[in-house]
Structure formats: structure tokens, C-alpha cells
Design goal:
heterodimer; A: alpha+beta; Rossmann fold; 2 domains; 6-stranded mixed sheet; 4-stranded antiparallel sheet; 9 helices; 17 strands; about 25% helix; B: mainly alpha; MetI-like fold; BP-dep_ABC_trans_perm (chain B); MetI-like_sf (chain B); MetI-like (chain B); transmembrane (chain B); membrane (chain B)
């Protein structure tokens, strides 16, 4: 395990800028989650760290050692791809053993059997070890590809939306499992997702990418509570942050064009009257869809609320975030 | 099951489909049956009119195929005593004695060396080239691929004279190496194009995964790409072998003594005796290796035909 430093990485494909001047330090043992919509450069970052692609400019250092010219094998990284990439002509067991049998690791067979067995146990695929890789369900395939990373002890694990194809239950289990592996084994992970629950629950650091630029990097709570821009604010939080004209409520600072109100940052029973449009009972909480001066606002209330469509609820901002016309934070 | 199911065939449809398959099989198999049958006929039966469907089988054709014979006077035959083997007996009926083996075995072996040699070389080079074209940024890639394909845009025999002259200058005339190179050159365009199609279908992620798993590019190619391209390699090999095995025109032109293959040799068996059974016997045996090779790779071939047609 080692810390990984990206310095001023840029990469273009033809006219498309995939990554532009990205620098970040992934401390040893950190769980870094990269957030951003499709095309923001998340996968490109992983590919540059892995060595599958070379940056146009900038450098990658792994464990303090310059890695820019090294092959993926020399960098000693693992990667879980978004589309499961199991070797279809091999059994699950051989797929898991494949990295251990590489000319670089040349692990003895009894050690391979031990590690493959242990990982299969954790990922609950032990009963499928002798199946052909093609005979697995999508979720099983993805667990095997995660397993192929976990049998090794690399400098860093790179994971590209590894849980996106799994069902909710398994995803929740594996979130805990990955977090445990990072915490107990001291593994370093660089993890791409657009699932904010994954980001909030697993990450020690969150990096938010926007059109190839790293716009904010820090602990998940910090990114959630003080986003540098409206864009970052919309990346985290479910339901999404309400972005409304700053003038809708009194007290906006000068230069503010937009007020950002997280659903839980809305005080009820004071301020302006808003109309209840829709009520979503989620069991543990209830989402209220309100309309205020033609703007949709989503807020949360207790599960047993008596409010119904057509009712009126007064609302006021609590700890609001303000952004200027360009979307940058102003207060 | 509704009357208009697209999955289950009605008995009528099955009957029609079955009859068509049988009809096609009869059309294609009949000439083969005729050749195999002729190989077991006597020369008289072979040219009988109307053709004999029922006949007394004899191995005469095969004996004549593998031997050279000379006419002996009755006196000489007397001195030789009774024939000491079944094939001697067959030959003696015509007042002949076996004077030695024919060159068929030798020609057949040449066909095996040249056919399989050029097939191996075509597929080997084709796989490497196809992989490079499929995966790497090759300068002028499209032009090169077109150039490779353009060698197929005329019948190869159209360049017979330049090739003949080149072979004479280079000392490749009538050599195994020369014929292997020639057939490889003809087959390589087919091989590159077919295999490129197959390799294009193999997602790059597999190799990337192998690179990450600690393997070099070549090891990833060998351990991950090759096993998945086996289907394509097998079907390409069959096509290459069939061409090299059956090629006649260049073989006539460029080989005579040492490297002559079976196709130009078989017609010469007919000689003066109109020995059709021997020709048919030679042809029958000549069919066997390709048939065995194709049956061995049949499973791959069937997948190969549909492979690439289905987009995932």
C-alpha cells in the first residue's frame, strides 16, 4: 500500500478534453471517491493512474516513486472495470488466481488456493468457484471481478463503479465489506461512482470532477456542508439541494444569484407560505414537494405528517448556501 | 402453441425444410459418391454405358494408384511362378508385373507439407497482423488493409508469369519453401481480414484486465486473446487449408519433380490406359485429410460462421 500523487494531469482524446490539470494526493490507506457525471473524467483518472493510458502532460507518483513511464504491471495496481471483464474461457477459480499466477507475483499454488478461498468466502462466491465465468449472473460476475482485485495486495485499488450493476441488498453488503477491507487491511482505494450514498458512507475523501477539472477535494462531510460551488452542492445530497433565486427569501448577501437549500435545511412553520403539491411517505421520513412563487421545493418532515396536497406550510431557510451567477459560493 | 409461432415450426414447414436439406445433400454428395464408387470399379465397369450402379468391387484402382507396372510376356510370367500377394494377383490378370511404387505417396506427402505448412504460416502471420491492426494505431492502417485485400481482387493466376519469373530468379521453382510462401501470400489477405473481424469482437477490457493483473502485452495476447480467438483461428485455418490443398494452376506451373503436389499429379495417372479407377482412388484418398481436419474443427467452424454476425 502506498500514497499516490497526481500532479497536473491532463488528457485529451482528439478535440475532447477528458482531464485538465488535475492534482490530488491520495494518502496511504485512504478511500477516495471520485464523483461527477458521465464525461467528467472519472474513468480517465483511473486509467491514467493504472497506466493503461499515458497522460498528455502531468505525472503520477505511486509510493513516492515516479510511475509515469511504468506499465500497469510494474505499477502494481488493481482495477475493477465498470463492465465486468472476467476471462470467459476460464473458471471462476482461475479468474481469481490469474493475477496471482502472473510472472510478477508467481505465487505458490497452496498460497493461491488459500487466498482465492478467503476472497471467495468474503464475496460469497465460494460455491461457484468451479463454474465457467460465463455461467454466472451479472452480480456474481461483478463480485468475481472485485475478488480478482482483492486477492492481491497492490499499491492502490482502482474501482470504476464496481457496485452499479448489483442489486440493492448486495450493494449495501459490499459497501460495508469494501469499507472493512480498507479499514482493516489498510488498503488504499480510488473509487469512481455517481452514487452519493457510496460516496458518503465509504469515502475518507471525496473528489468532485466537472468537465475534466477537479473542483473540490476533501472529507465527505466538508464537501457536503461547504461545497465550493452550486455544481458540487448538487453532486451530494438526496433529495437534491433546492436551487432557487436568491431573492425568494430575505437576507441574501450581495452578489448572490442563487440560494441553495438542502431539504433538511428548511425550517417549517415560519417565513413564507408555500403550497404542498405532493407528499411522499418513505416510511422513516416523508418528502414534501412544495410550490413557492412558482418554484418547486423539496423538503423533509416527520413520517407521521398530517399534511396533504393543497395544504399550506410556511417555510424559511436554515443555514442556506449562496452562489453567484457563475455558480461559485458567496456565503 | 399458436399457428403463427415464430419459434416452433409446423409439421409442414419441417417437412419442406427437411426435403430441401435432403435435396441439397444429394446434389453435393452425389459426385463424391460417384468418385468413391469409381475407385472400387474395374476399368471396364468404370467406363461402362449405361453406368453401372451395382458392380463387383475391386481394389484394382488402388493397386494401380500406388504401383507402376510393366507388361510381361507369358513366358516371363511362367518363370515367375504363382503370384505371392493379393495385389500381384490383380496385376497378373492383365498380363502385367509390378515394377515398383508409383510417385503418388510422395506427391501426397508434398501436398501435406505444403498445404499444412502454408496454412500454419498464413494463420500465424495473419493472427499477429490482425491483432496489430485491431488494437494498435498503425500508420496508414486503412490503406494497408485495403492493399492487403486488393491482392484478392484478381485471380492469383493472373500474375502467374511474373511469379514464374520471380521464382526462377530466386531459385524457388519446384521447392516446398516456394510453394508454401506462394500459398501463404495468397491466403494471408483472407487470413488477416477474417481474423481481424474475430479479434475486433473480443473486447479490449480483457487485455486491459490482464495488463493490470501483471502480464505483459504479449502474455495477455497469448493467455487471453488467443483462447478467445480460437474459433476464428480454426475457421480461418480451414479456409486456408482448403485453398492450398486444392490449388492446381500454380502447382502445374511451378512444380514438376521434387515439390509437385497431388492435384497436378492425379490427372497424369490416367496415362495411356484410361485408368479412371486409379484416378478416382487417388482423388478419394486426397479428400480425406481436409475432411478429417474440417470434422476435427467442425465445432469451431459452426460457431465461426455465426460469430461476428451477432452484436451483443
Amino acid at each position: 500500500m502506498a500514497d499516490v500523487t497526481l500532479s497536473n494531469l491532463s488528457k485529451s482524446y482528439g478535440d475532447t478534453v477528458a482531464l485538465s490539470d488535475v492534482s490530488m494526493t491520495i494518502p496511504d490507506g485512504a478511500f477516495v471517491v471520485l464523483l461527477g457525471p458521465t464525461g467528467a473524467g472519472k474513468t480517465t483518472t483511473l486509467r491514467l493512474v493504472s497506466g493503461l493510458e499515458a497522460p498528455d502532460t502531468g505525472r503520477v507518483a505511486i509510493g513516492g516513486m515516479e510511475a509515469t513511464g511504468l506499465t500497469p504491471a510494474q505499477r502494481n495496481v488493481t482495477m475493477v472495470f465498470q463492465q465486468y471483464s472476467l476471462y470467459p474461457h476460464m473458471t471462476v477459480r482461475d479468474n481469481l488466481a490469474f493475477p496471482l499466477r502472473s510472472p510478477i507475483l508467481k505465487t505458490p499454488e497452496d498460497e493461491i488456493a488459500r487466498r482465492v478461498g478467503a476472497v471467495a468466502e468474503v464475496l460469497r462466491i465460494a460455491h461457484k468457484l468451479d463454474n465457467k465465468a460465463t455461467q454466472l449472473s451479472g452480480g456474481e460476475m461483478q463480485r468475481v471481478s472485485i475478488g480478482r482485485a482483492l486477492v492481491r495486495e497492490p499499491s492502490i485499488h482502482l474501482m470504476d463503479e464496481p457496485l452499479s450493476s448489483l442489486d440493492a441488498k448486495l450493494r449495501a453488503d459490499l459497501r460495508i465489506e469494501l469499507k472493512r477491507i480498507q479499514a482493516e487491511m489498510g488498503a488504499t482505494l480510488l473509487y469512481v461512482t455517481h452514487d452519493q450514498i457510496e460516496a458518503m458512507t465509504m469515502a475518507t475523501h471525496v473528489g468532485v470532477l466537472d468537465h475534466g477539472r477537479l473542483v473540490q477535494f476533501g472529507p465527505p462531510r466538508e464537501v457536503y456542508e461547504s461545497p465550493v460551488s452550486l455544481y458540487v452542492a448538487t453532486r451530494l445530497g438526496l433529495p437534491r439541494i433546492n436551487a432557487l433565486p436568491a431573492g425568494l427569501f430575505p437576507g441574501a448577501p450581495g452578489g448572490a444569484a442563487t440560494i441553495g437549500l438542502r431539504p433538511e435545511h428548511i425550517a417549517h412553520g415560519e417565513g413564507q407560505p408555500a403550497e404542498v403539491v405532493r407528499v411522499e411517505h418513505l416510511g422513516d421520513q416523508t418528502r414534501l414537494h412544495l410550490r413557492l412563487a412558482g418554484h418547486e421545493i423539496v423538503t423533509l418532515t416527520e413520517a407521521q405528517t398530517a399534511l396533504g396536497p393543497g395544504d399550506t406550510l410556511s417555510i424559511a431557510p436554515r443555514d442556506p448556501l449562496f452562489f453567484d451567477t457563475a455558480g461559485a459560493r458567496v456565503g | 402453441m399458436s399457428d403463427f409461432s415464430v419459434i416452433a415450426a409446423t409439421p409442414r414447414q419441417k417437412w419442406i425444410a427437411g426435403s430441401l436439406v435432403v435435396l441439397y445433400a444429394v446434389i453435393t454428395i452425389l459426385p463424391l459418391v460417384w468418385i468413391v464408387a469409381t475407385g472400387f470399379k474395374s476399368p471396364a465397369d468404370a467406363i461402362a454405358y449405361p453406368p453401372k450402379v451395382v458392380f463387383e468391387p475391386t481394389l484394382e484402382g488402388y493397386v494401380n494408384l500406388f504401383t507402376t507396372r510393366s507388361r510381361a510376356t507369358p513366358e516371363t510370367l511362367e518363370t515367375l511362378g504363382p503370384p505371392d500377394s493379393w495385389y500381384d494377383r490383380i496385376v497378373r490378370q492383365y498380363g502385367m508385373v509390378i515394377s515398383g511404387p508409383s510417385r503418388y505417396g510422395e506427391r501426397f506427402l508434398n501436398s501435406v507439407i505444403i498445404g499444412f505448412g502454408s496454412t500454419f504460416l498464413s494463420v500465424f502471420l495473419g493472427t499477429l497482423a490482425a491483432y496489430a491492426f485491431s488494437r494498435f494505431k498503425v500508420p496508414l492502417k486503412d490503406d494497408l488493409l485495403f492493399f492487403i485485400l486488393s491482392t484478392r481482387m484478381m485471380p492469383p493466376i493472373a500474375v502467374a508469369i511474373p511469379i514464374f519469373l520471380m521464382f526462377r530468379t530466386l531459385g524457388l521453382s519446384d521447392t516446398h519453401l516456394g510453394m508454401i510462401l506462394l500459398y501463404t501470400a495468397v491466403n494471408i489477405s483472407l487470413s488477416v481480414w477474417l481474423l481481424k473481424g474475430f479479434i475486433d469482437e473480443i473486447p479490449r477490457e480483457y487485455e486491459e484486465a490482464a495488463l493490470i493483473d501483471g502480464y505483459t502485452r504479449f502474455q495477455a495476447f497469448r493467455k487471453v486473446v488467443l483462447p478467445q480467438a480460437a474459433t476464428g483461428i480454426a475457421s480461418t485455418a480451414i479456409f486456408c487449408l482448403i485453398f492450398a490443398w486444392n490449388e492446381y494452376a500454380f502447382a502445374v506451373l511451378l512444380t514438376s519433380g521434387t515439390a509437385q503436389t497431388a492435384p497436378p499429379f492425379i490427372p497424369t495417372i490416367i496415362g495411356v490406359g484410361k485408368d479412371w479407377p486409379a484416378v478416382a482412388a487417388g482423388t478419394t484418398l486426397f479428400l480425406i485429410p481436409v475432411m478429417v481436419f474440417t470434422i476435427m474443427l467442425r465445432k469451431h467452424l459452426l460457431r465461426g460462421i455465426t460469430f461476428g454476425a451477432v452484436r451483443k
